[in-house]
Amino acid sequence: MKPILLVMTGGTIGSILEKGIIRPDSHADGALQIYRQQYGQEEQFETIALMNILSENLQKKHWEQLANYLLQTDLSRYSGVIVTHGSDTLSYTGAFLGVCMHKTACPIVLTAADKVPQHPQSNAADNLRAAVWLIRQQRPGVFTVYRNPGDSFCSIWLSTHVREADVVTGRFSSIDGRPLYRIEKDVLLPSEEPLQTVDEPPPPLSISAPLRLLYDVLLIQPYPGMDYRTIQLRESCRAVLHMTYHSSSASTQPDNSALWFLKKCRHKQIPFYLSSFPRDIDSVYETSHVLLQNGAVPLCHSTKETAYARLLLQVNTELNEQG
Predict the structure, then answer these.
(1) Whether pLDDT at 115 is above 50
(2) Are strands 272-277 and 45-53 parallel, antiparallel or unpaired?
(3) What is the pLDDT of residue 278?
(4) 205-249, pLDDT tens digit by residue?
(5) Residue 76: is it exposed, middle or buried by C-beta count within 10 angstroms (0-12/13-18/19+)?
(6) Residue 244's domain spans which residues?
(7) Do you find a cis peptide bond into 210, omega within 30 degrees of 0?
(8) Which 3 state secondary structure label does DSSP give 223?
(9) How far apart are CA 286 and CA 208, in angstroms?
(10) 3 with 45: CB under 8 angstroms?
């Protein structure tokens, strides 16, 4: 079998605990060492420490580095790719790679850890094992693998469907209500939970190296009392992604609201997107109707991570095509 390419980026799965402080490990491969202790040397890995950061420090330049490395690597040499990552922004990088690397026939699996690999209760080795097991199945696509707290199995999701982990429980979830599969004791099983209806994905973008992310997308999460007048639209901003409340609504008060900001964006010719709307809808709230009538573009059934990644790649792909 071809080797597995292990791309290490840092995060808890690549960190050590010293005097109560978790920091990136200069050796970076502690999780792989523990994996080999528990599961042996059956798999051949080719490793690269592409970066070594805590994922809350993730910037666009790190996505450029990761995407360009994968786009410029001959992935046909490998049975699959595992990207180890910090859990804080795992769902964002998963969405980014899910949009960026959709054409590859080589399975790409992202995973993380809840505790440093040396901790006796860490899920690092289990998550790596599940990633390896998924690669053995040779299913093309970009996936996220993780054993949630309290589970005896690892969940497998499409990376473009994963939501950010809950801040209280630390559990990852999916926009379609369940994982695709679960892996328990080296057995790949279908999910036991019912699948929710999810829209077909939009037409894929054509991404090629070198990828440059020079332009920005402003992501706004509304809350009661939000003062939109404090938001500045910098010259690099090429789109605004405004999230909605669960009923696909946002404020339309006349003097300081999403509607006010939408008009400001329209004046500057910056596209204004609303996420997330259901696909089949026969009625909308008056607030949603007003925003749509004033030029807001609805995005349907998408996580904020995937909507953001897609728009970010879209505005920068257009830049690349223009030279």
Answers:
(1) yes
(2) unpaired
(3) 78
(4) 888 889 999 999 999 999 999 999 999 999 999 999 999 999 999
(5) exposed
(6) 216-321
(7) yes
(8) coil
(9) 42
(10) yes
Pair of tokens at residue 242: 């405004």
State whether 267 and 140 are in the same domain: no
Which of these, 51, 105, 107, lies nearest to 82 by C-alpha position? Answer: 107
**Are the beta carbons of 275 and 242 closer than 8 angstroms?**
yes
Spatial distance between the Cα atoms of 19 and 40, rounded to a whole number of angstroms: 31
Element (H, E) at 34: helix 30-39
* Signed CA dihedral, 147, 150, 153, 157: sign only: negative
DSSP designation for 126: H
Pair (185, 41) in one structural domain: yes
Distances (CA, A) of 117 to 82, 143, 166: 16, 21, 21
Residue pLDDT, tens place only, 86-111: 999 999 999 999 999 988 999 999 99
Query: Tokens 């696509």 label which residue?
Result: 141
Q: Is the pLDDT of residue 195 over 70?
A: no
Backbone phi and psi for residue 68, each to the nearest 5 degrees, phi listed first = -65, -35
Q: Within a domain: residue 296?
A: yes
Residue 286 CA to its chain's centroid (Å) = 32
